[in-house]
Structure formats: structure tokens, C-alpha cells
Write a structure and sequence with these properties.
CATH class: Alpha Beta
Strand content: 15-25%
Shape: globular
Order of helices and strands: HEEHEEEEHEEE
CATH architecture: 3-Layer(aba) Sandwich
CATH topology: YojJ-like (1
CATH superfamily: DNA integrity scanning protein, DisA, N-terminal domain
Largest sheet: 5 strands, mixed
Number of domains: 1
Strand order of the largest sheet: 3-1-7-8-9
Radius of gyration: 16 Å
Oligomer: single chain
Length: 186
């Protein structure tokens, strides 16, 4: 858990940020549910990695993922046009790799990135350790590690292997296998 400062803005409690997280999560879940070939051998499904950040830049801890770009001409502001966001997300999930960076105001950064490992997976102030599950691949381990950064509000992934949707916050995660997506999140 992060140390609280009286001047910190708690973005997680802002209605717009909660709506943004819900829109991203619901789109990711629907993409998982709309793909029906998860159990076929040698088939890779759509995969996604979103981060919602409160900072103005990720340049100090991320690198560009080559030509992998979010098509901002089709969807720049997620909450302005949710249908366009869903369409673009469906395409990106099947054709690009890297993390999509979204600011707390819902604006998507064009360049997709690879986050560098966080300097430490152990926070001495809180005693919190980022732990990885056996099922996690590189996308999920990166999301867990990245979510422990102070400026990252949430990371959301869709596994290309099995359609699992996972929410990462402060290095912890809540995950739902594809077959359980119809059930309520705990």
C-alpha cells in the first residue's frame, strides 16, 4: 500500500476514473467472450495490456514498442466514444503488442510501450512484495510490476492464451478466467 500524503489526489475514488476503468474492463471482457477458439491447439487469441496512469509521461520507465501504435485518429478519448474505443481495442488486440497507456482523463497515448522492470519489487515502507502466479506470462508479470508504480492507477490484461482478464493494482491482482467472466467480480 502506498504512503498517503495530504496533498495526494486519490484518482481511484474519482467517478470519471472509475468509469474509465469500467469501460476498459468491460471492453476487454467482451473481446475475450467474443473469441470462441480459445481451446483450439496452436490458436492464439486476442491479447491486451492497458495501463491507466496519473502522470504526464512514462518516458522514465518505458520504451517504445517499435511501430506498435494506438490509432488515435480513430479513438483518442475513450469516454468520448466508447463504441470507437471497442472497435479499435478489438483491432489492437489482434494486431499489435505492447502496453497501451491511458491517462486518468481518458486520453490514449499513441505510442505503445514496454515498461521497464520496477527498480524493486519490494516496498520497504509498506512491506509489500509483488508476487507472480504460475500462470502469468511476461505481459501479466509486467502488469503486476508496473501496477506497483505510484503513478499507475490500474493495469488490465487479456491473456492471448486463454482469455483470462486480470486487474492489477498496487502490485496485487484480481483475475477471472474466461469461463467465469459472466459471474460477478468479487
Amino acid at each position: 500500500m502506498r504512503m498517503e500524503d495530504p496533498l495526494d489526489i486519490e484518482y481511484r475514488s474519482h467517478d470519471r476514473v472509475k468509469k474509465l476503468i469500467d469501460v476498459v474492463r468491460f471492453c476487454v471482457e467482451d473481446i475475450s467472450l467474443s473469441f470462441d477458439r480459445w481451446n483450439e491447439p496452436y490458436i492464439t487469441g486476442p491479447g491486451l495490456y492497458f495501463t491507466i496512469i496519473s502522470g504526464y509521461s512514462v518516458r522514465d520507465h518505458a520504451d517504445p514498442m517499435g511501430d506498435n501504435r494506438w490509432p488515435i485518429s480513430e479513438c483518442r478519448d475513450i469516454l468520448n466514444d466508447v463504441d470507437s474505443f471497442y472497435e479499435v481495442t478489438s483491432d489492437v488486440a489482434r494486431s499489435r503488442d505492447g502496453a497501451v497507456v491511458i491517462s486518468v482523463d481518458g486520453i490514449v497515448q499513441e505510442q505503445m510501450v514496454r515498461f521497464r522492470d520496477y527498480a524493486s519489487t519490494f516496498d520497504e515502507d509498506s512491506g509489500h512484495t509483488v508476487e507472480y502466479a504460475d500462470w502469468m506470462g511476461s505481459r501479466h508479470m509486467s502488469a503486476a510490476d508496473t501496477s506497483a508504480r505510484p503513478e499507475v492507477i490500474m493495469a488490465i490484461t487479456l491473456s492471448a492464451e486463454n482469455g483470462r482478464v486480470t486487474l492489477f493494482e498496487d502490485g496485487d491482482y484480481t483475475t477471472v478466467p474466461r469461463d467465469d467472466l459472466f459471474q460477478a467480480w468479487l
